[in-house]
Design goal:
six-stranded antiparallel sheet; 5 domains; 49% helix; Beta-Lactamase; 1039 residues; Arp2/3 complex 21 kDa subunit ARPC3
Length: 1039
Amino acid sequence: MKRSGEFFKSGSVRQQAVDVLAVALLYFSLAQLGFLFAIPPGNITIIWLPSGLAMAAILALGAHAAVGVLTGAFLANYFNLVVGTQAEMAFFPSLLIACFNTAEGLVAARMLPRSFSMENPKLRMKSVLPFVGGAFMCGLVAAVPGAFVMQEPGSGTYGLLERLFTWWLGDSLGIITGFPLVYKGYRAFFFGRKPDYFLNQMTVTAIGLLLSILSYIFTLNVQTESLRLRFNYVSEVAFLSLENAVREIFQHQASIASQIELEPDLGSDRFRVLTRDVVQGEYRALGLQALSWNPIVRGEDRDDFERQTRLRGQENFQITELDANGRRVRSVERDRYVTVLYIEPYETNQSAVGYDIFSEPLRREAIERAIRTNAPAATSPIQLVQGGNGEGSIGALVPRPVWRASETRELERQLIGFVVAVVNFSNLLNDTSSALIADARVSMSDVTDFGAPVTIYSNFRSAASEDSGLGGGVAGLGRTRTLEIAGRNYLIESEPADRFLIANASPIPGTVLITSLLLTLLASLLYLQWLRTLAMREDAQIRTSQIIDCASDAIIAIDNKGFVTEWSKAAVQMFGYEERDTLGKPLVELIIPEQFAVAHALAMSNYSSERESRVVNKISEMSARRANGEIFTVELSVRPVFLRGKHEFIGLIRDVTERQRAEVRLRESQKLDAIGQLTGGLAHDFNNLLGIVINNLDYLNANGLNEVSQRHVKDALDAAVRASKVTKSLMSVARRQAMDVGVFDINAELAELKPLMENTIGKTVHFELKLAKGCLASKFDTSGFNNAIVNLVINARDAVRESPVRCVTVATTTETLEVGADELAPGKYAVVSVSDTGPGMSPEILARVFEPFFTTKERGLGTGLGLPMAYGFARQLHGKVTIETREQQGTCVKLYLPLAGVDRQSLIGSTVVPRSAVGGTAPVSRVLVVEDELFLRKVACRLFSDLGHTVIEADSADAAVLILQDSNVDILFTDIAMPGTLNGIALAKHVSEKYPGIKVIITTGFLDEKSRQSLLPSWRILDKPYRKASLVELMCGLL
């Protein structure tokens, strides 16, 4: 056997031989068991388990198992049939029936599995019903031909149909009950496979049907036995009555014979007196139709005997016999006559007087036998010639010899005649067995002679009774008795009639069957519901298991003693323990840090006694330990559950390490954003003030001051310009710095910057530049990039100043960030790292390095803006700056910038248009200046007036809207941040929509790059603090 469940299989010859032998033996054994429950005649049962075995064997083992079925079926039927018939007569029927049984198994194994799926874990009634219906169809394969083969002669159509129905029902129920039991046992025993729902359901149904049928057969057998005992009693009483009646007849006959021996010449009156009470009246002998005295008359005394008899009063008496035509004629001459002289009752039998019974062969044979045995001897069954009630009836004459002492010899006796008892079998049975005859079918046959029995009495007529007496009825309840009457043997057969069966039948077998079937149906439905509930529970468990396995959080369950009962896949990944290594082990030994083990045990004990806990039904953060000993923070949610009378705990554990890191980064980002907003706001206001100072100093310097005054003004102007550079640095920190953004190769920029970096570091520090292969194209402002790198190099140089090994390395590489990596968008990034061999940073310093003006350098050696400026530059370009540092092991600062996705050839010839002055003079225009800062507005108005433009001023955007309604304006020059309902951008949009001919210039001291890029396509932007040259350049380019 290679696999179970296939129809045709291959295997070794030895294995197949073992299969065939095992199937044959099991089939034979089950068949013998089935015969025990057979309904007579003993070879057909209403449940034939071998049918289910045949289907299961062929389905499980393959087609070669059919040989075992054939062998077992032949042996079982042969040994069952050979008991009641000759061996050669049982061979061919047994072989035919075995072929039919094998064909039934093959058809069932081929057809029935199509109606259901053996491997389907789901059970539906639409799988069970086709199986049951198919089983009844397959039962016809063997039942129809088998019933005809086993039909008994004379059984008739009813007997054939009864046999066919019983056979069909037995084989069908055998498949339904036997197949699930055998197949389930086979799969479980040989393969250890858990039976599927279909086999389980059918097994329950099969067991219920089997028990129902066995219960029915048992109660039916009990009822049959009760009927048998009752019928045996009635039959035995009838048989005893019959024997007593025959014995009484012989007693009366003997008594009369004795009296005649004493009175050989008695007259008719005396004979009548002797026989009157015996043959008629209330106390007559039952079954006795007549008694006659038949003296022996010698041939030479015939005439004298006839004459004397007439003289005694019997006129016209003569000795007669029957001729060939059955007519009464005078007897032919012979040496002796045995003639009827007296007969009682005379009135009904007077025609028999004078008849020579010795003239008829049957009567003569009985007479001769009586003489030889000197005892009553009955004739063969004859048609009685006596008239009256017995006319036309079958009976027997029983002559009894009568002797008298010899007149010549003292010790010899002389045979003088015969007392003949005329026994009417019909009267005998009706008179003695009326109770039996009323409730049974009774027949009486003469079985003395060889050959077929001669039926002499029957109270029914049927095709079967014509030859062999009884036919039909309830088999097994009939009684037979052989009765010896005067040297002849009579077989009396009886079996209960329908009237007896109906009168004595019990409803118990039917009630038991119906009740058992209803209980089987109820049990099957309950089991089906239980299976469905079990399937739903298994589905729920699988679904729950899948949910647990899919959960990113670890799920752990422990019992009330702290031992692990559940360990999810996420727990395996989180803690590093495999599930097999955790189940049944104390949780405290696995994930609880040693310093918290005592607290954990105490908490478990407190909850068990007081049902109070700081953890149960709460969400809390605590420390946990991985398999490698690493301690990390988790978020724990514990819920108690009550299972099998005990408390268990289910914990949902979330690793919050990354979340804490993200929260730290978020707080740092928010802190830096807040500092940036503050710094940007200060820079904005400071730029306004610087704009006033610088432009007024420019005005003074351009209006003919003396040399000393010009020198003072120049000094003040230089200071103001330096102050504007400081504000630009602050704007960079706040990510509001104006940039000339283009696509550049980072490697090329660093190569150009290398001399500057080497000069900055100095000859006392080893400097190394490691550039990645290929082009690292990114979108950035070269000035900002250079400032950021130089500031990082300066910090690295200062960090290694006191180190024994002084080394600074600038390197480039690429890195691909996945979704959710920090706060950056996923994609490829260029990474510029600046590493040093300095003392590194402590966690406290690392937490503050991006704060503006924070520095660890001595006063006057640093501004604290280097790292904040680099951070702001990177964030403004959607990148980031990270720091990796360990105390006494150095620091590595990494600058991440998004790659632009272009190659080196694409960068050749690409340039960024610089903010260079544009020559020429701008045409005269009407300019509307909108600025809320009074002094700065006056400076702007003066600059435009000096350039020859007509100026209209407004202190807010709302005032500008009103001016635009009444004035013609060519250029709108507006600040962004202003009080009122509208700001500068809203005003610009209003103008662009309602007055599309007006040019727009926006001036600002605080604008991030993203907002700048969104405004540039439509309007020009002038950064504060601006000077006259920048304004002239912008106006020339605009007009």
